[in-house]
Amino acid sequence: MKVDSSIAAVVTGGASGLGAATARALAAKGAKVAIFDLQEEKGKAVADEIGGVFCEVNVTSDESVDAGFAKAREAHGQERILVNCAGIGNAIKTASRSKEDGSIKHFPLDAFNWVIQINLVGTFRCIAKSAAGMLTLDPMDDGERGAIVNTASVAGEDGQIGQAAYSASKGGVIGMTLPIARDLMNEGIRVNTILPGIFNTPLMNAAPQAVKDALAASVPFPKRLGNPEEYAMLAMTMIECGYFNGEDVRLDGAIRMAPR
């Protein structure tokens, strides 16, 4: 797909990190970008910077997502590009014993479900609603109607201690990529997923420097954290290369995560 001023795009989680970098990369090619996020101040700042529109969206809510797409389409028209970057994580063992008093506890199911609802169900919700909108479009010269990029994680393949919920949610995103690409193949909509490794996002920026240095040292090459702009580069390739479809691609400096 050629990305230019005739193309509308939606980026979930676009207020910061991987999503913001992708929103900027799309806008640099001329695309009209709508940012879906709950971080209003940051989201509006990015939208103003790139000449886009901010939509306050909670991906766990049908009503909120519907309202976001309605606002984005009123401003820019039906999107041909969707990039899903909205997500959260937690670190809780499935069951554990307290070091202080030996008491036993298990992973709270509400906390497990919340990660699944945002990372997996929220991603699918946005895909389904965006794809339905793309079906109303006329195909372009190459027969394409749209392109969707999702964000999983290397944890979806080699999750660490405490990542049961996060790994399950990201593994689900990986697992649904090919079936969705097949669902949409006759409509000219491509679907791909990126599995980022350890990236220098706002969440990671909050970690102590010693922790970041240790994480960087664990990457085979290059021995550093990934940059959001590198994620955006791969997302743009998935969008622009018309033969890229149904793929799950690690972007991780060849890291394979250890148990902890």
Automatic annotation (TrEMBL):
Keyword list, A-Z: Oxidoreductase
Record carries keyword Oxidoreductase: yes
EC number: 1.1.1.100
An annotated Gene Ontology molecular function: 3-oxoacyl-[acyl-carrier-protein] reductase (NADPH) activity
Residues passing through the membrane, by range: none
Sequence similarity: Belongs to the short-chain dehydrogenases/reductases (SDR) family.
Record-linked PANTHER family: 17-BETA-HYDROXYSTEROID DEHYDROGENASE 14-RELATED, SHORT-CHAIN DEHYDROGENASE/REDUCTASE
Record-given protein name: 3-oxoacyl-[acyl-carrier-protein] reductase FabG
Organism: Tsuneonella dongtanensis
